[in-house]
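Today's session is about reading a structure prediction critically. Students often jump straight to the picture, but the first step is always the sequence itself: look for stretches that repeat, for charged clusters, for runs of hydrophobic residues. Only then move on to the predicted structure, which in these notes is written as discrete structure tokens rather than atom positions. Here is the chain we will use throughout the hour.
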Amino acid sequence: MMNIKGKNNTLKAVLDVILYENPSTQDEIAEKLGLTRRYVTKLLQPLVKRGVVKRAYILDLKKFDEFSEMFDEEPTSREHAGTFLIKEMLKNMAEQVCSQFDMSFDAFLKYDEGMANEALKLDFVTNNMHEKIRASVDTVISINPYSEFSKTMVFGEIAFDLERIADHTAQIANFVLSGCYEVDEEMLDTLKSMFKTSRKMVNYSMKAFLNEELDYKDKIMDYEERIHQLQKKALNNIALQMADDDMDKDRSTYYLSLSRVVKAFERIGDISVEIVDTAGEFYRNIPRTTTPERFRRQ
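Below is the predicted structure for this chain, in token form.
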């Protein structure tokens, strides 16, 4: 009896890794838990055959419900369990995207091609996390599409927003790989301020959504105003440099790539505003405008 309980506890640990840590292989699961890959395969094989665990290690929440009793857990609403699960996945994805953002800008500051390539590789992990959240949202909605839990669809929107932020950080890393010149100090100071401001916006917007901390909206809107002031300053700086420059093809590429970096920070800020607006609708039924943030300013 103890052996069965011990096996079930190990299986639960394996499933927790799949749920919350987004492993890509059984080797990764085994390494995280200090198990052999062979033992992980043995534990998962029956669940794979029954469709509880799918390829790329995504749990089917509907089928997983059948196994809840073996873990001695109190029966709870599948809706609340699903909410908690997907919020944890979104939290992990937000941390991943912020790491990608940090590494991209660090590569930019140091003009480090190796680091820029590593930042771009992180995007594959981000995309995989997005797919897992999307699959989980589809599963939960299929369980009870008529309840208020259909609001779960919003989780998919937030995951998509995070993926968009990650895509914009790629523009920052790509600047280093495009063979551009290093940026002068004055421009660099402005871009540092843009990074700090947009990075805070991402952090506060996700806190607003994950923890229902909607008071962050005022702070985010203040940061939005700040980032647009910095964007204007940066673009004016680029225009002045272009006017004084006898541009060849390489210099044209430099200014174009630098403008994309500036735009990336601005778009990350706009998406952060969209996330906090989504939080307001999700928790307090405050309707979101259908006009994208960048057009509202006009």
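Discussion point for the tutorial: Confidence is low (pLDDT under 50) at residues 73-79.
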